[in-house]
Structure formats: C-alpha cells, structure tokens
Amino acid sequence: MLCAKVAAVLDKYKGAACIESFDPRAVFWFRRKRPDTVRGHLITKYTGQKTPHPVLGFLQENLLTNFLTAPDFIAMDIKHREMHAFQLCRLIYNVTEVSWTVRSPEQAQLIKDARGLIIFEAFDPKKELNEDVLETQPDPLDHSGNQE
Q1: Is the pTM higher than 0.90?
Q2: Phi, psi at residue 23, to the nearest 5°?
Q3: What is the pLDDT of residues 94-111, one digit of tens each?
C-alpha cells in the first residue's frame, strides 16, 4: 500500500510533517500503524460530483468515518466549510479546521476569526495580510480549547 511507502519516507525525514488524504482508509492506516504521525482528512462536498465510489463519497462528505480515523485536523474545502456535518464535528470533537484553498485576504481573515489554519494559493500572505493573521495560527494537536 502507498501508506507504507509514505511512512518509510517520513521515517527518514527529520522535520515536522503530517499526512492528509481524501481517502479515510489512508488516515485510518496511519492511525493504526503510525499513531504519532499528525494526520488530516481532506473533505469537500461530493454531492452531484463524480466520485470513485458514491457511498464512500457520502461517508466522507458527512464525516461519518471520523470515529474510525480520528484525524488531528480536518482540511475542509473553504467553499463548503459551513456544511452542518463539518461544523458539528468541530463542536463535538474540538478538531482543528484547516481550510483549503484560501485565495484572498478576506477568506484568510474569515478562517483566522474561526481559529482555523490556512492553506494559501494565488496570493502571498506575507505581502497581503497583516502580521496577526500569520502569527496566531493554532496548534493542530492542542484539542484543549485553550489555543491562545
């Protein structure tokens, strides 16, 4: 499986790293085989889209695999971050939100205000954002609710 190959590469890497995947089976593999690896589940809205498997798409979109995968963070498509299943999961499990793909300073401020992490594209955050947006990113592994 690809996960074992990724784990082997991570074993040789000396810096901070995480894995993230759209496929909950990969997140689950790392939970079982490499529980110390920070892992995230990438989510988007699959309704009406072509998916490899419609049932898997439904399960993923509604975060119904999280009880098995226990991700450290959920990387949510910013276009769909208001989905009820995502907001409920954040509330119940206090899981860190990582929003992708943020393409404007306004979107970045929205995510900062929600205490989420940001995956940027199409603009330079160092040039277009004030420093506090960049400096106050929460620790994705601190689920205490005390992320100041």
Answers
A1: no
A2: -90, 115
A3: 888 899 999 988 898 899
